[in-house]
Design brief:
The protein is an alpha/beta fold and 281 residues long. Helices cover 46% and strands 14% of the residues. 30% of the residues are buried.
Length: 281
């Protein structure tokens, strides 16, 4: 009988690739990590933490691909992270040891397009509250209020208007809806995830410059930025309502409206008919 030797299955290589827009313009590059790549993910995380320790201006953009809009009833499929506006890692959190990544989220300020959405998913699935550095959607609504070409502040239009006409294909996003978290992802889907993080990182200094030129940075730092975290927590956790107090306020206001209505009617009744103006046809 032939000798049968147990052979370890060959591990597929890590996938690396380029991110390009619909016209073929190079946006950046990515590396894809999955279960078994925790060592490399930890190395990235340690490098980011060390960078932030040496320079507290350092921040990350990160973006989540999810199975839907509701974090309570959906899964996180992919997470992309960019640190320099050129490179990104995309990792699949299912089955991975995320210890160092969660430390990054607790420590380093983060940014994204409509980051309030991502904050709710991060808290529900990873029990982490992150510090918001920037939100390109909210900040651009401030910076280009009433004058944004196309009147839209989604990532596709912002990239087109702010980044010299980059054309994004956002139809790939539909591929993730109701997706099983255990299915494989195509290179196009991984590149799509990477592109959001890279493009958001690229836009941040340009939007900040616009805010500064319009003297809106104080408004951003003191009002809009802190409000994002407050709204994210409120939307996720809900708002505690004192039902008795609300009922009392409703009854009080109702009585006031009735009194105002009665007083208004009495005022008109006291005006003589000959004093009431009539329209002439």
């Amino acid at each position: 009988m032939a000798d049968v030797t147990q052979v370890e299955p060959i591990k597929p290589p890590r996938r690396c690739g380029e991110v390009r827009d619909k016209q073929g313009v190079l946006i950046g590059r990515y590396i894809y990590l999955a279960a078994g790549d925790e060592d490399l993910l930890a190395q990235f995380c340690d490098s980011w933490l060390k960078t932030y320790e040496n320079d507290n201006r350092f921040f990350l953009t990160f973006d989540l691909e999810t199975t839907g809009l509701d974090p309570l009833n959906g899964d996180i499929l992919l997470c992309s992270v960019c640190w320099d506006g050129k490179n990104s890692i995309v990792f699949r959190p299912q089955g991975m040891d995320l210890t160092r990544w969660l430390e990054v989220l607790r420590t380093i300020p983060v940014a994204n397009q409509n980051i309030k959405f991502d904050l709710k998913w991060v808290y529900h699935h990873w029990k982490v509250y992150s510090y918001v550095h920037f939100d390109t959607m909210v900040a651009s609504q401030m910076a280009w209020a009433g004058c944004m070409e196309g009147k839209k502040f989604d990532l596709k239009n912002l990239a087109d208007q702010i980044l010299r006409g980059l054309k994004l294909d956002k139809t790939i996003r539909e591929n993730f809806i109701s997706r099983n978290a255990n299915t494989q992802f195509t290179d196009d889907e991984i590149a799509y995830s990477a592109s959001d993080a890279i493009i958001t990182h690229l836009m941040i200094p340009l939007i900040k410059l616009r805010l500064a030129n319009m003297q809106l940075m104080d408004l951003w730092e003191e009002v809009e930025r802190p409000l994002i975290e407050i709204l994210a927590r409120s939307e996720y956790r809900g708002v505690l309502i004192d039902e008795e107090k609300v009922r009392e306020m409703y009854e009080t206001r109702t009585r006031e409206l009735v009194r105002m209505s009665d007083a208004l009617q009495n005022t008109f009744l006291e005006i003589p008919d000959d004093k009431i103006g009539r329209a002439h046809v």
